[in-house]
Amino acid sequence: MGEFELIRTYFAAAPCAQGGEGIALGIGDDCALLALPAGEQLAVSTDTLVAGVHFADPCDPFLLGQRSLAVAVSDLAAMGAHPLAFTLALTTPSVEADWLQRYAQGLNAMAQSCGVGLVGGDTTRGPLSLTLTVFGRVPAGQALTRSGAQPGDLLCVGGELGNAAGALPLVLGQRTADAAIAEPLLAHYWSPQPQLALGLALRGKATAAMDISDGLLADCGHIAKASAVRLVVERHRLPLSAALLAFVGEDQAHVAALSGGDDYVLAFTLPPSELAPLQADSWPVHVVGRVEAGQGVTLLDGNGQDITPAVRGYQHFRQTP
Ligand SMILES: Nc1ncnc2c1ncn2[C@@H]1O[C@H](COP(=O)(O)OP(=O)(O)O)[C@@H](O)[C@H]1O
Ligand SMILES: Cc1ncc(C[n+]2csc(CCOP(=O)(O)OP(=O)(O)O)c2C)c(N)n1
Ligand SMILES: [Mg+2]
């Protein structure tokens, strides 16, 4: 099977490639065309996943299909954008019909659950990697950026932290666990759920937001820098799952939640008056700290002692001392 038959069979024919809201022209021409309603801005984000770096290889291609789109769409959630479309650049060493079929099925499942259409991409031969670019729309001026956090705001997250990082030894086959522990952890690694509805609900309320990919401390550092404030994280407030605590114990659960990464839940800052209404509407909002004047990120233990670690999160090309 050649390049074009592959594209036709597995991607152009996929249900998620048959058009949708805002898609004026999809797969097949030199560009796709997206139509935006008047007064809306286009939100654009791209993410690459490399075999052995971002996901275990070999792995279940259906799960990879889900995960590769979920991590990309998570950036739209973080901006409070409404999802429209995505492109897929696939680099693969060979054409394995079964692998491609199941990858496309996983991609399609996540595309349908997020409401995004596949509008184009690129297919090349080489070591396995995937680059997904996502497009969303947001009313002009209403996107949630990293730069609006104010002293006095609460620092919040949209769900449990550390589950995906805790799953890594299971993903890599280094450890095993009972299904009651393994299943919820592996679900967070392979099938993160972009918090699109929460992102929309936070528009006009959160003063800053982002999604946690590298780890809470590292990603809070980006909000702190962009907003020129200090973010204080209180370790005893971290939302940790029973499965994570049972699998790795409290100390390692803290490490996973603070600097493991791969969470793909939102981190955001909120004026205190906005908290009760959001919680009353059952939005998953967990207060994990606060915003102060100053700079950087500080981690406090339950006694208010500064226990900020040197290593904050995942970084490609990190120099080891
Ligand atoms: N090679 C690059 N060229 C231009 N911009 C880049 C490049 N790599 C990353 N960026 C930009 O730098 C910022 C930080 O990137 P990153 O930490 O990867 O964001 P995210 O966690 O949202 O994926 C983003 O605005 C991203 O678009
Ligand atoms: C097999 C495997 N090993 C390690 C990790 C952990 N990991 C790899 S990249 C990464 C951070 C997120 O990737 P990045 O490219 O920085 O995403 P971005 O911040 O751009 O969204 C993490 C936590 C993983 N997901 N899978
Ligand atoms: Mg990135």
Automatic annotation (TrEMBL):
Q: Where does Mg(2+) 1 bind?
A: 46-47, 122
Cite the binding residues for Mg(2+) 5: 214
> Which residues of the sequence carry a binding annotation for ATP?
121-122, 146, 213
- List UniProt keywords, sorted A-Z: ATP-binding, Kinase, Magnesium, Metal-binding, Nucleotide-binding, Thiamine biosynthesis, Transferase
Q: Residues in domain PurM-like C-terminal? A: 150-299
What is the organism field in this record? Pseudomonas lactis
SUPFAM superfamilies per UniProt: PurM C-terminal domain-like, PurM N-terminal domain-like
| Sequence positions that bind Mg(2+) 3 | 30, 75, 211
A Pfam family reported for this protein in Swiss-Prot or TrEMBL: AIRS_C
State the remark under miscellaneous: Reaction mechanism of ThiL seems to utilize a direct, inline transfer of the gamma-phosphate of ATP to TMP rather than a phosphorylated enzyme intermediate.
> Which pathway does it take part in?
Cofactor biosynthesis; thiamine diphosphate biosynthesis; thiamine diphosphate from thiamine phosphate: step 1/1
Q: Where does Mg(2+) 2 bind?
A: 47, 75
Which GO terms of the molecular function aspect are on file? Answer: thiamine-phosphate kinase activity
Name assigned to this protein:
Thiamine-monophosphate kinase
Q: Where does substrate bind?
A: 54, 262, 314
InterPro entries in the record, alphabetically? PurM-like_C_dom, PurM-like_C_sf, PurM-like_N, PurM-like_N_sf, ThiL-like
Q: Which residues form a coiled coil?
A: none
Q: What does this protein's UniProt record list under function?
A: Catalyzes the ATP-dependent phosphorylation of thiamine-monophosphate (TMP) to form thiamine-pyrophosphate (TPP), the active form of vitamin B1.
Q: Which reaction does it catalyse?
A: thiamine phosphate + ATP = thiamine diphosphate + ADP
Q: Which family does it belong to?
A: Belongs to the thiamine-monophosphate kinase family.
In short, the EC number is: 2.7.4.16
Sequence positions that bind Mg(2+) 4: 30, 45, 75
Where do the PurM-like N-terminal domain residues begin and end?
A: 28-138
